Amino acid sequence: MRIRKKENMASKNTFSQFFSRDKTFRPKKRFEPGTMKFNLHKQANASLNSGIDLKEVVKLPPGEDMNDWIAVHVVDFFNRINLLYGTVCEYCTEQTCPTMSGGPKYEYHWCDGQTYKKPTALPAPNYIALLMEWVEAQINDENIFPVKVGVPFPKNYQQIVKKILTRLFRVFVHVYIHHFDKLVALGAEAHVNTCYKHFYYFVTEYNLVDKKELEPLRDMTAKICH
User: Fold this and answer.
1) Distance (Å, whole) CA 128 – CA 121
2) Contact, 89 vs 125, CB < 8 A?
3) Mean pLDDT of all residues in the chain?
4) What is this structure's pTM?
5) Which residues make Cβ contacts (< 8 Å) with residue 172, sequence separation at least 6?
6) pLDDT tens digits, 116-157
7) How many other C-beta atoms lie within 10 A of the C-beta of residue 114?
8) Are 73 and 60 in contact (CB under 8 A)?
């Protein structure tokens, strides 16, 4: 796998434009203007686009609530990974990707406790479609992600967030390992690398994805995340 080692934040304006496109795999989730989360979202994006070191960008701003900070990033990563997969989804079919895998060593089975009560092997596009529907449902559930000021987050909030981010990471795994050539051909490599670095630094800063889950992209991560 070819990975460019150049610093991607140098092209911050192009990065911003690329991830502002409306061509997403699923509709974007947006924050309501005027809300605290909307302001946090603007603050996080301003820092991201300013060229600040991504390791610094993910740190909790002074005086802000940790759960709100995490919520803003979960929604942002959901939107960005939607776009990432949307750039290659036409190449990810039941024929080209009959399993949701990350190379020969890793295969993911879907389980949601409802329609799929047991872990079930599915073609990658089906798995990812179900994954995105599930994440969107979690984000839209105000019992998990409250939108009104003063409404507390649930006690199992971090547990739910870890599951969301772990599942979103699997989209990175599949896209990087099975569709990286398409990213390069589309000129999206640098943008996706920056998105991945942002995600990686965030989840490792707050221990939101287990190390064993990060293993499939370990070699690539060592090259682009310093």
Assistant:
1) 12
2) yes
3) 83
4) 0.81
5) 81, 84, 196, 199, 217
6) 999 999 999 999 999 999 999 999 999 999 988 889 999 999
7) 7
8) no
